[in-house]
Known about the structure:
The chain is of the alpha+beta class. It has 4 helices and 3 strands, in the order αβααββα. It has a 3-stranded antiparallel β-sheet. The longest helix is centred in the last third of the chain and has 10 residues, at about 70-80.
Amino acid sequence: MPDPSTISTISPASTDVFDEMAAVWPSAIxxxxxxxxxxxxxxxxxxxxxxxxxxxxxxxxxxxNSATAYPVKNFVAWLRSRxx
Length: 84
């Protein structure tokens, strides 16, 4: 789980919330079952599975050991594109 206390080290003038999410995430990937934690509860893993099956999920999705994952950079870009 990311350490929320590290967010304070990020300069608000040069980043947005999506950059902050990526900066505190401890890995270069987001496993689908960890999407809820990465997004602060905004998106459920099942929602991601549904979007992936419709071809509407993030680019770069891959499967390793039966687990689906996304590169953080691609996941953040996808989140940003779906935000208003």
